[in-house]
Amino acid sequence: MHRAGHGILSSMYYGFDEKKIYLRADFLSHVHENPTPLLVEFLFPSKNRKISLVMSTKERSLAFTSGVLDESKGERDSASKPETILAAFQSVLELGIPLVELGCGEEDRIEFFLTVTAHGLIGERWPMYGTFIAELPGRDFETRMWEV
C-alpha cells in the first residue's frame, strides 16, 4: 500500500538550542490555494503533551493551544504556559517551544510526530510510523559539539 492523491507537507525540519526546540513545516504549493483551515498537531507521546494549531492559508491566520495528550487521566494543565511558545505562519509554519513547556530535563531526549489534516485533502502523519527522536543539549552540550 502507498499514499495516493495530493499530499499536504513537502518537508519538516527541527532543531534546538539550550532552551527551545524549533519546528518548521513546509507545505506543498496547492495547500495555500485551499480556502479551508489546516489542523496541525505536534504530539510528544512520552511527555504527554501536544501543540495544536489551526491555520488559515487564505487569511494567513494562526491560532494554537498547548495541552496534555490524554486529558481523561484527570491531569490539569496548570503548568502549561502557551504564551511562551513562539509561532509564525506565512508560507511555512515555524514554532519555538520551550523545553520546560514539554517537561524536558537537562539530560533528555524528545520524541514527537506531526499530523496535518484539511477538509478535502488526505491527512498526513510525519513520520508515517514511529517518531522523530532528538537528543537534547544537556549540561555538556557545548563540550560535545565544539572542538578546538
Radius of gyration equals 16 Å
Name given to the CATH architecture: Sandwich
The number of strands is 10
The major pleated sheet works out as: 6 strands, antiparallel
Question: Could you name the CATH class?
Answer: Mainly Beta
Total of DSSP H or I helical runs spanning 4+ residues: 1
Helix and strand layout, with pairings?
Blueprint: E1 9-16, E2 20-27, E3 38-44, E4 49-56, E5 61-68, E6 86-89, E7 92-98, E8 109-118, E9 124-126, E10 132-135, H1 141-145
Antiparallel strand pairs: 1-2, 2-7, 3-4, 3-8, 4-5, 6-7, 8-9, 8-10
Description of the structure:
This protein is mostly beta strands and 148 residues long. The protein has one domain: Immunoglobulin-like (Sandwich). Helix content is 3%, strand content 45%. Strands 3, 4, 5, 8, 9 and 10 form a 6-stranded antiparallel β-sheet that branches. A 4-stranded antiparallel β-sheet has the order 1-2-7-6, with no helix packed on it. The N and C termini lie far apart (50 Å).
